[in-house]
Design brief:
Number of helices of chain A: 9
Number of helices of chain B: 3
Largest interface: A-B, 43 and 26 residues
Strand content of chain B: under 5%
Structural class of chain B: mainly alpha
Helix content of chain B: 55-70%
Oligomer: heterodimer
Radius of gyration of chain A: 18 Å
Largest sheet of chain B: none
Shape of chain A: globular
Order of helices and strands of chain B: HHH
Distance between the termini of chain B: 127 Å
Order of helices and strands of chain A: HHHHHHHHH
């Protein structure tokens, strides 16, 4: 019976990527793309923008891979790049005062979920997410969407596990309230 | 603390196909393929053409913009050139050369 090969650890993939191994870097991107997307989405609240930012962050990370001092914690380093770039992008959008328009336009152009029902559900979720603080969005997306533990979230967001739990509790409560209010509006309320 | 039930946020996540397409896009931009032989030849041709144009422009600047020599006035060529003779006479008067 052939031995089951375990996936290579992150530090090995980082080392191979530094030597120009495209396949290794592809595996790193595959492994961390959704987390990068979640953080970008928490900041920008716009799926298409978040997707672009996640891709840009991976390109920047590749160019600066030699600066990653702890390859085993590649994800922490990467998500800092994602957050910084997302905040810069948000600032840029605010300056142009075109955020609302770009959200509507790119939402239609985005090919993430083409079905109309999915688009409506996604819009409701995005509206509900916008009621949260940025930190609450980051925690709820990383925990409930990506399945990260509070220890991992605390490390990435530079906070404590207790705070992470607190943010998650508040985020879930606000989301539920917001979504229930929308449901009542749709069904006529009771 | 964590007693609030989870809200399903999966509709916000990119689909696996979308993730794979993003991975390919990142790799294509991070690791561009080396140029093919034809592309290398095309670039060499472009450089040769640019160098030729530069050389032609430099040659035109050097040779093409020079003023032509003034044309000789019309009429017969004088049998002697007055000015040099006069100059020679003045030199001869000073005893520096023999008078013609």
């Amino acid at each position: 019976m052939a031995p089951v090969s375990s996936p290579p650890p992150t530090e090995t993939l980082v080392a191979r990527s530094r030597e120009g191994d495209a396949e290794a870097y592809g595996e790193l991107v595959r492994r961390h793309f959704r987390a990068a997307y979640a953080v970008a989405l928490a900041v920008t609240r716009e799926p298409a923008e978040a997707e672009d930012l996640a891709q840009d962050a991976f390109l920047v990370a590749h160019q600066r891979l030699h600066e990653c001092r702890e390859p085993a914690r590649f994800h922490t380093w990467l998500l800092q790049i994602v957050r910084n770039r997302s905040l810069n992008r948000l600032e840029h959008l605010k300056i142009r005062s075109a955020h609302a328009d770009s959200v509507r336009t790119s939402d239609r152009a985005s090919g993430i979920h083409p079905a109309a029902g999915d688009l409506a559900l996604r819009r409701r979720l995005l509206d509900a997410l916008s009621e949260l603080s940025e930190r609450e969005r980051e925690v709820v997306l990383l925990h409930d969407l990506e399945g990260w533990t509070h220890a991992e979230i605390a490390e990435v967001l530079d906070t404590t596990e207790g705070n992470s739990r607190q943010f998650l509790f508040q985020a879930r409560r606000k989301l539920r309230t917001s979504l229930q209010a929308v449901k009542k509006e749709v069904t006529g309320g009771d | 603390m964590e007693t609030e039930p989870k809200v399903d946020l999966e509709a916000l996540a990119p689909s696996p196909a979308r993730v794979e397409s993003c991975v390919e896009a990142v790799i294509a931009r991070a690791f561009p393929p080396p140029p093919s032989l034809w592309e290398a030849l095309a670039w060499a041709g472009r450089f040769a053409l640019a160098a030729g144009l530069l050389l032609a422009a430099a040659a035109w600047l050097f040779f093409g913009t020079r003023q032509p020599l003034p044309a000789r006035p019309p009429g017969p060529v004088p049998a002697y050139a007055p000015f040099p003779d006069q100059a020679l006479l003045s030199l001869g008067a000073r005893g520096e050369v023999d008078a013609p």
